[in-house]
Amino acid sequence: MVTCDSYLKCLNLRHNKIKKEAIENLSRAMAAHHDFVSCDMRDNPGFHPGSETNTLLKYAFLKNIRKSILQYHKTRMRLKLEWIFPHAIGMAGNNLDDCGKKVIGNLNRNLFLKLVNKIAHQIELSFEKCLAAFMGNDQDELL
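Request: output the structure for the sequence above.
Response:
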């Protein structure tokens, strides 16, 4: 069912008492989905950040983020910051998702720019290309 929904981009499953087997099943379904870019599964008993399942899911998310960024440059359909949970793509120290994800003020702007830079590095695209996919024509105001 999940693999057929192209509108589903992310899920917040934090604090849901999900056990390991369910996390693994959800992860397999999300990894097979070609548009999923992130999922917050923290604070569930079955979630372990360093697990093989989580690592495979991280790479699936990065592949889909890369696809979304490349699509932006053809369609101008932006990748929304609200869809990205930094820890889900290996940025556990970036607390942008705990700040309300508004790129307002220096702290959030810096966290956002670090997130975009890390994404660019991990998916081997330029920072500018990645930033444009999130910000569109508004990127000059941010910098």
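Residues 2-142 form one domain.
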